[in-house]
Amino acid sequence: MTEIRILLAVSTSRYSQHLVDLAMTEATRLSASGAVCIDVLYVLEAEDLEHISKRVGDQGFLGLSTTADVMSTLGAEHHRMALLRIEEVKAAAAEQDCDVSVKEVTGRFVESVLTQAGEAQYETILITRADRPFVSRILFGSEADRVARMVKKEGLGHVIIDEEDVS
Amino acid sequence: MQTRRLIALLAGPLLAALVATMDTPAGLTLAGQRSLAVLSLCVVWWVFTPVGLPVTSIMGLALLPLLGAMPAAEAFSLFGNQAVFFVIGVFLVAAVMLETGLSSRISLICLRRLAKDENRLCNAVLFVSWGLCAVVVSHAVAALMLPIVLELLRALNLGPRSNTAKRLLLSMAWGTVAGSNLSLLSSARATLSLELYGSYLTDHGLPSAPIGFLEYSLGAAPVSLASVFIAAVVLRWAFPPEGIDLRPAMDQLNERVQSMGPVSGREMTTLGVIAAMILCVIVYGREHGMGTVALLFSAILFSLQTLKWEDAERYVNWGVALMYGGAIAIGSALHSSGATTWLIDVLMPAGDLPPGMTLAATAALTAGMTELVSNSAVIALLMPVILPVAEQVSLDPRVFAWAAPISAGLAFVLPTSTPALAMVFGTGHLRIRHAIPGLFITVFSLAAFLLAVHFVWPLLGLPVTS
Prior knowledge:
Chain A is α/β, with parallel strands linked by helices.
């Protein structure tokens, strides 16, 4: 039987229950053509933590040690969130009788998704937008759109961007 | 390099060059024009932060003599201002409180005592975060409370959809934001504001009227108190209790308190030195300068080995001295060159606005700006400009020495506003929409501020009209 792979790329700031539901709907649709496997890529966004670190150090004027402590506390919480959310995806996939594989990486969201997309043949890549102000998105673009553009350019699969923010 | 960073980096010097090279407008001196050029660069760099805040300050400081806005000797002498040393003292107090574990002990014991149910636990986090700010600078309180709150979330197994998790995190952040208005030890921006007010009086040949530690706190504390009570109501309304079992969190708190053991001699010494320092700042601060007292007690902390130099380096970012020293020099150049008076004459001809309306508009503008820009930068940018406004509308300029730092401490929504909010948003539990109710706190706190100005301050002997 043909194996069809779906990439569900999430991170601490890019996750919604709606996105997980969307992945399950997609899995059901594709299951007619073969066995569906959902690869969950959880990106621990180092860049987000760097931004906070900069804010704590530069605006809060707290020293390097305090800033490092804050970052390690936040890093641990991101990991805990990742585990909780991965459990949610696994539970939803079990209901649909889908296989799930999980990969947790630390890095930038766009690059991590593109690297993973290049490692396997994905039918569908599911992502959601980060919680950013509308103006910032208009002025500086969306990373989700960037992923979609790059994936299309490289011919790595079909991207679905979840527009609904219901986490 | 990110595009937005590059744009901001280039826009600052370009705007400064434009202002410096245009024809000098009537009524503005050449030094004033050059000061405004420096301010233009600082506005762009402080707002969009292509470089750190202290870097902008030192660039401004270097440009003042280079562009002829102020003689080098004068600019650099302002850099060594005693307000800068008081701010260093404020951060050293925070460092010793964190290093000795005294602040952790106080917060954990208070949380254990107060947290009897879910509602009280959230309120305890709010009020403990707020109360600690009376002595420890608010950003350090946030750094101290964040791991404690996250440990509680872990103990209670609260996930990303939990309302209680969101409420606990916002209680910590909003508590520190409200607490940043409690005293001169709560934030450095108030000291900057008072110093810019002092230099404004000196530069305009007005009699010196220093504002003391107790005087400032008495004026600011009613607003801070109103903010924290409003925050408690808003949090209760926005995130109703979920009826969770608190026992794991209580066990966690008990375990943490027990693991700390009895109060150490070092903690007792710290407590004694800080209490003595506050008392001396209140009693001798006006006469000898708050910076002098802060330096003396900082030296005592080091002499008693309560704080070691390497500890201080770990806890304090020395960029704070560069940021505040530069901001004071730039503010003074703007005042002494008459640049800000000219600017206000052009933008706001006399008699245009009633005093009450001007004060309310200034406070709202400051609070709004603080949602987007660091509150230190907001004070550095706005204070030199708004002080001449006071005279224009027959308000005592002293009112703005309170109004600016207080309203710069009323940003409760965006992660860009304060490190505390950046930290709690950084946990991933919150989206911006969850903090939108913070707007109610801002609005009601501004109302409380205006009420305090009109009804409480006169009772404290603080005049409102000049």
